[in-house]
Specification:
The protein is α+β, with helices and mostly antiparallel strands. The protein has 6 helices and 10 strands.
Length: about 180
């Protein structure tokens, strides 16, 4: 198992977009459904967010990638923990399924207004706009690059650990 990254495709957003961990969980719960939702907009003053639905993409097959991602969501959101939980295969509340990392990355890369998660090793070679949530030493991405890097308001306090990946309590910053 390797690091898991969140990747997205939002045309027209020329500047970095911030999503906190709770908002990522609520997107995957289907509670935040629009890119210009006030919860996202409050963290992104000065960015013209599109009034477009968020298209959630997840793995359709059981995987370690899903296990890591759902373990993280379980740790940051009590409703996720109660309704969905963690594991290699879960009953997703919303979204489109893609087979394997290739399927998720392909849907995100070719479909505007999507958000998904894939293994870092695949994201680096496949080229969707993404960045690991596990490396707090990475620098800021170029504006509009679509890279994700951690912003850790809790000074790196560990939230959970799965295999070789330690996820941090953080906000995800989408650039």
């Amino acid at each position: 198992m390797g690091a898991v990254v969140v990747t997205y495709n939002i045309p027209g957003v020329a500047k970095g977009l911030k999503l906190n961990s709770e908002d990522v969980a609520n997107i995957y719960l289907g509670k935040i459904t629009m890119w210009n939702d006030p919860k996202i907009a409050d963290d992104n003053k000065g960015i013209a967010l599109p009034a477009k639905p968020i298209i959630v993409v997840h793995r359709s097959d059981g995987s370690g990638t899903t296990s890591i991602f759902t373990d993280y969501l379980t740790g940051v959101n009590a409703e996720w923990a109660q309704k969905v939980g963690k594991g290699g295969s879960v009953k997703w509340p919303v979204g489109l399924g893609g087979k394997g990392n290739e399927g998720v990355a392909g849907q995100v890369k070719t479909t505007p207004y999507t958000i998904g998660y894939v293994e870092l090793a695949y994201a680096a070679s496949a080229g969707p706009r993404s960045r690991s949530t596990a490396s707090p030493t990475w620098g800021s991405p170029a504006p509009g690059s679509g890279l994700i890097y951690p912003h850790d308001p809790f000074k790196g306090a560990p939230l959970c650990q799965t295999a070789d990946l330690m996820l941090l309590r953080m906000s995800l910053v989408l650039g």
